[in-house]
Amino acid sequence: MTHAILLISCPDHRGITAAITQYVYDHNGNILHAEQHTDEKENVFFMRIEWSMEGFDLGQDEIEGNFRTVAEKFSMKWKLYFTDRLPRVAVFASKHLHCLYDMLYRYKSGQFRCEIPLIISNHPDAGSVADVFGINFSEIGITPAKKREQEKKQLQILEQENIDTIIFARYMQIVGDEFIDKYENNIVNIHHSFLPAFAGKEPYLQAYQKGVKIIGATSHYVTGELDTGPIIEQDTVRISHKDSVEDLVRKGEDLERVVLSRAVRWHLERKILSYNNKTIVFD
Amino acid sequence: MTHAILLISCPDHRGITAAITQYVYDHNGNILHAEQHTDEKENVFFMRIEWSMEGFDLGQDEIEGNFRTVAEKFSMKWKLYFTDRLPRVAVFASKHLHCLYDMLYRYKSGQFRCEIPLIISNHPDAGSVADVFGINFSEIGITPAKKREQEKKQLQILEQENIDTIIFARYMQIVGDEFIDKYENNIVNIHHSFLPAFAGKEPYLQAYQKGVKIIGATSHYVTGELDTGPIIEQDTVRISHKDSVEDLVRKGEDLERVVLSRAVRWHLERKILSYNNKTIVFD
Amino acid sequence: MTHAILLISCPDHRGITAAITQYVYDHNGNILHAEQHTDEKENVFFMRIEWSMEGFDLGQDEIEGNFRTVAEKFSMKWKLYFTDRLPRVAVFASKHLHCLYDMLYRYKSGQFRCEIPLIISNHPDAGSVADVFGINFSEIGITPAKKREQEKKQLQILEQENIDTIIFARYMQIVGDEFIDKYENNIVNIHHSFLPAFAGKEPYLQAYQKGVKIIGATSHYVTGELDTGPIIEQDTVRISHKDSVEDLVRKGEDLERVVLSRAVRWHLERKILSYNNKTIVFD
Amino acid sequence: MTHAILLISCPDHRGITAAITQYVYDHNGNILHAEQHTDEKENVFFMRIEWSMEGFDLGQDEIEGNFRTVAEKFSMKWKLYFTDRLPRVAVFASKHLHCLYDMLYRYKSGQFRCEIPLIISNHPDAGSVADVFGINFSEIGITPAKKREQEKKQLQILEQENIDTIIFARYMQIVGDEFIDKYENNIVNIHHSFLPAFAGKEPYLQAYQKGVKIIGATSHYVTGELDTGPIIEQDTVRISHKDSVEDLVRKGEDLERVVLSRAVRWHLERKILSYNNKTIVFD
After folding, report:
1. First to last CA, chain B
2. Is C34 on the interface with D (CB under 8 A)?
3. Which residue from B minimizes the CA distance to C273?
4. Do domains D3-82 and D88-281 have the same CATH topology?
5. Does C236 touch chain A (CB under 8 A)?
6. What pLDDT is recorded for position B88?
7. Which residue from B minimizes the CA distance to A36?
């Protein structure tokens, strides 16, 4: 049975929750999940509400117009999703393929509610992984000179495939503004450090040289600036002086997989609101 | 400013959330927090809702009667609290005093919204800790023969002091039915293992002998059966073959303090619903 | 360059470390790693020492006889390994294939120093995973009636393939004494709970019903008794009342993979000594 | 019974371990712990060896001269400690007293093998904590103008009391070169972030604003540069969008206490070697 999911943010005000829940009830909807959060410093209200469309007295196309009255009364920003329209996802990878592999394994195991019709890489290596899982593969090499041109090509393919969500599974390229604008808050990246520590290149080497006792991984939305977008999820693991850089890589890769998978899952289930370069995750 | 906190459980039904939030709004209440959970297997709905009494058009004593109509419609079990009536807490301790110390330190630091007028112990040692923090101390020795009689004495003192909440800060005694009945879901215990593993005596020794690689601590509500009440919070820490039983004790005590403090805090803030020998923690 | 690895246990005694390190030095060996542990309660000494065979003045086949004098002086139990003889591993699986998949992915990625020529399962499903990774697959169905007979068949195949190490990657069968005797301390199992809690069947369901706030996974050597062999590694992850049994399974499977992989890696690198139904891991 | 503890670092070389362990054995010492580590990139060897002085055929004052032959052969840097000479520790604090409290509680509970004759603070508040634990308190206010002069006063007092180890229990002052030189690798600090993230002022506020999902604490040796000395220990705890800055402070303080206590304990037990602005902890 299809569910509707409504994500809302607006200035905090008396009566918002009542208005929204009453709206769903008046149209005969059964609320399955409702979570709210108020940022008391900024006086902003956030809500995620999910209800069953079984018996709902408005069609999917009617809600958008109908809900507007409520939305405008409270100056809401809002997005409406229906679970029968699966997100269409492209996975980008480079040379380190453990996250790509893991994403596709989870996808095939039914952990992700989405369609993944496409894998894009700037290297040929990911092609064989794509083959194993029977997914189309597109190699689009990136050089400094051809970068803009190749990004146009990427965007074309994404459009052809109706892609709305992108996973950077260790895709080690910075993408341009056009890309960011089109997929704002829809590109999920994994960075192999505990951000904001060790942004940029070779974070495991940086961590080794610094002598930290714990390493981490961070999944975040991609913005125009490197490794600084809204953080979705992080996790850490203990290391010691006995660990070489290679040990850090191995231990870290286990983190990367898990952290990215959590972030992707929350994103696909519409559990994330992005705000002030931070995220609210209604887990 | 005083807040009202309402804890609700009832059979799941269309319109519950709308009815409750509308109720608060109709009486001019400003909802500060609202969290709900549905146990889909058992078809039970749970909610915690907190609102400001500023401008609310019913007095504290009027709500109880007034809300009944809503409550009965949905066959709710419910409890209503006001934050200007602080819980009155007695801490019970025995010989291991690290948790008692920690509870009182946090209390004096303002981490707990409650009053602690009383410490009870079956040993004299806790008396000096009580002195440091300026809290009344009552030593009530327990022997198998005098157990019932002494528990009566304890209950009398608790009643005199209007105690509604009890913390067992490593109080190593099993209490009788009268005690449990009177303080159901209001006695928070800490057990020094990852329950259900290593219930009963000397859990650190048990853990050492079993050769586990991680130890834990568990805070739970006390029931008539030893170490099996609804679990509120748990945490774990890594150990190795290098750790002696004494090392386990030392590492474990750090866990005990933190785990017990989280459970106590949630309990005092009315964030816990107990159900089917499990807890829902609206953290 | 080949390394020698010596694992030793013996009654604790003055001069053991000096005798062993001097032995290696006298034969012109370069010690790469040396770790020792003394169980002070039991007065037992444990050591792992690894040295380079480059320039060592004894051949691999000569050391065994030559070292005996030192060993007997201290009543040592000892095992000697050389890194140019890779362990030959068979992976056993049933219907849940995530651990099998992960083992093989790590094997192909070079994380495990071993050869895996064989996968055995009591179900046909694992066959396609074996195919993906290009490894021989043998389906040997187990029914109560045919259990002994089929185990004989398994043992024959293992012998043909010179298997010395077995991984139970969620192989949900109890094996007989002949099996255990032959592969004592050489069968690494993963159990999907934080042992000793929730041994036996459906540990995730047990954990859900108990209402624990943290779940775990345990890797241990298989003994004749179910889920009670020496624990090699454990790890835990936080859950909440929001998690269904299915969520526990998903979160737990991420743990299982990592915990099993650590245990297998340590085993293959000869870092584990088993003693008194516990392990010493020289990580 | 007194133990000797020898900490060694030197260029890696065949025969070092044998030479050291043989030395102890030749003088009739019983080795209780021996741990070594080789930094393979830098080709440096590190060792910690602890033996019982019972029956040792050299007096405490004789070893230093006698061992020199071995030390010079391998160009060792080395330090020798005896457990009957307890480190003399001064704790420095400012206004946040939770770490001071915790240090003193652990000290009185017997967790630290040291003497703490002195507490120094730039604020009067710590005085009452010192009183509770019966330890001398010295208030030495710091202003930019009087900083050098006051540091001289601090150093005088430290000298009078024969202090060899300093704990900065949230002492929020940068100390001068004279201080650092005199107590190199003997000042243990706690910083309330996961370094190198959020160095400097108000790390909890920084973490809140950045929107990280995990916060940390770091204990390190103090050097001339702020928050960049060799890291001894770190730990982390999960937070969420629901946590205010005050929640971060509360959760973080629990970390700070535990992380600092581990670092202090290792330092007092002579388990730390500092090298290349990193530490080797023989835990």
Report:
1. 21
2. yes
3. B241
4. no
5. no
6. 98
7. B34
**Residues 145..204 of B with a Cβ closer than 8 Å to C: which?**
194-198
Q: Which residue type is seen at B246?
A: E
Residue C172 pLDDT more than 90? no
Q: Looking at A273-277, C82-86, C208-212, D223-227, which range is the least confident one?
A: D223-227
Largest CA distance in chain A: 64
**C88-281 placed in CATH 3.40.50.170:** yes
**ipTM reported for the complex surpasses 0.90:** yes
Q: How far is D27 from chain C (nearest CA, A)?
A: 11
- B279 CB within 8 Å of a chain C CB: yes
Which CATH number fits the domain C3-82, given the four candidates 3.90.1110.10, 3.30.70.260, 3.40.50.1000, 3.40.50.360?
3.30.70.260
Select from A13, A20, A21 the residue whose CB has the most chain B CBs within 10 Å, as the one to mutate to test that interface.
A21
For residues C67 and C38, is the Cβ–Cβ distance under 8 A?
no
List subunits contacting chain A, requiring 3 or more Cβ pairs under 8 Å. B, C, D
Which tokens in the block code for residue C9?
Answer: 């246990």
Q: How far is residue D283 from each of residues D9, D36, D83, D262, measured CA to CA in Å?
A: 17, 11, 17, 10
Each of the 283 residues of chain A gets a pLDDT tens digit; together they read 899 999 999 999 999 999 999 999 999 999 999 999 999 999 999 999 999 999 999 999 999 999 999 999 999 999 999 999 999 999 999 999 999 999 999 999 999 999 999 999 999 999 999 999 999 999 999 988 999 999 999 999 999 999 999 999 999 888 999 999 999 999 999 999 999 999 999 999 999 999 999 999 999 999 999 999 999 999 999 999 999 999 999 999 999 999 999 999 999 999 999 999 999 999 9
Amino acid occupying residue A41: K
Is the per-residue pLDDT at B217 higher than 90? yes
Parse chain A into domains and list their residue ranges.
Answer: 3-82, 88-281
Q: Identify whether the C-beta of residue A206 lies closer than 8 Å to the C-beta of residue A195.
A: no
Is the CB of A250 less than 8 angstroms away from the CB of C111?
yes
Confirm whether A227 is a catalytic residue. Answer: yes
Closest Cβ–Cβ partner in B211, B242, B276 for C37: B242
Cα C105 to Cα B75, C68, C134: the distances in Å are 54, 40, 12
